[in-house]
Amino acid sequence: MTSLADLPLRPDLVGRTAYGAPMLHVPVTLNTNENTHPVPDAVRADIVARVADALGTVNRYPDREFTELREALAAYLGHDLAPEQVWAANGSNEVLQHVFQAFGGPGRTLLTFPPTYSMYPNYAATSFTAVAEGRRDERFELSAETVVAEIRRTRPDVVVIAAPNNPTGTPVALDVLEAAYDAFDGVLVVDEAYAEFMPAEAPSALTLLPGRPRLAVARTMSKAFAFAGARLGYLAADPAFVDALRLVRLPYHLSAITQAAALGALAHAPEMMRMVEDIRQQRDRMAEGLRSLGYDVAPSWTNFLLFSGVDDPAALWRGLLERGVLVRDLAIPGALRVSAGTAAETDAFLDAMRALTPIGAAR
Ligand SMILES: *Cc1c(COP(=O)(O)O)cnc(C)c1O
């Protein structure tokens, strides 16, 4: 058996481990913030028809500029965005990788605010970008003062802020993002992977785009559109910012099949948003249930919750798994993260928590 150590690996990759959310097959999977609701049948049928159509010309390379998809994404986002302001790739993971390839690199630094999405340092590593970690305020919040102080201290070239944040679910106010933008001359990426789960009246960072050519707002169809398996992420920014990403993408990176499937899902955005509303309700029911058991639940604008006050998170994680419920242990002291389920999954999770709390202990 050959092992990694036997191969002439790039020196900076030696000793690194790959992204590793456990992929266990259990009845109630609430560990990676997927949309727990399947795509409705009628929407599926439309997507299948569009993909079948796309297969008719799959002998040709796809539209490299994914023009129709960019138009549909711009229309979906609103805010008077033009298609030239939209970029897409295979998941927002690839979109963010493009940003690092274009704006990070040797001699440059990413500033990130842990606990946050664990992939940001990975994009930095594979693009030879150094990583600086900023501190947060009490209860994982971010204030303008803290963000500006951390930017002055670490002098970054790229700042990524997840808003709302993962794994805490907590919102980030727009004045924090404005202050961050003004505090340096690199690029600010606001990762709005969970934007559709925010309260309806909460403003998006998209409203900050006019006059801010170094700002990008990243979104994904993985969460709200129940499309994690289809891989479609996107961002909105100044057209010049988008041109920079064209320099680093591989040609034809978005397959004709992906483009057709995404267009199909976007055509049914209102139906998909009704599903989002149901998930929000389950999330709130989950939060109430956890609070009544004595856990501390961080305010969430997402499709998941971070709850703390857990004496032994590893033991509670195992106990839940034994009862067929998979949640996420992110090594945050005293805390676990759980994604909002369907009504039945939420019941299963709360039942298991009720059974385990006397041992798992809430304070
Ligand atoms: C889930 C998630 C993403 C989505 O990644 P995709 O590649 O689009 O599936 C991006 N950012 C954050 C913070 C997430 O939690």
Automatic annotation (TrEMBL):
Its cofactor is pyridoxal 5'-phosphate. Pathway: Amino-acid biosynthesis; L-histidine biosynthesis; L-histidine from 5-phospho-alpha-D-ribose 1-diphosphate: step 7/9. It comes from the Bacteria. Keywords: Amino-acid biosynthesis, Aminotransferase, Histidine biosynthesis, Pyridoxal phosphate, Transferase. Signal peptide: none annotated. Its EC number is 2.6.1.9. GO terms for molecular function: histidinol-phosphate transaminase activity. It holds the Pfam family Aminotran_1_2. The keyword Cytoplasm does not apply. The modification N6-(pyridoxal phosphate)lysine is found at residue 223. The keyword Amino-acid biosynthesis applies. PANTHER family: HISTIDINOL-PHOSPHATE AMINOTRANSFERASE, HISTIDINOL-PHOSPHATE AMINOTRANSFERASE-RELATED. This is Histidinol-phosphate aminotransferase. It comes from Amnibacterium endophyticum.
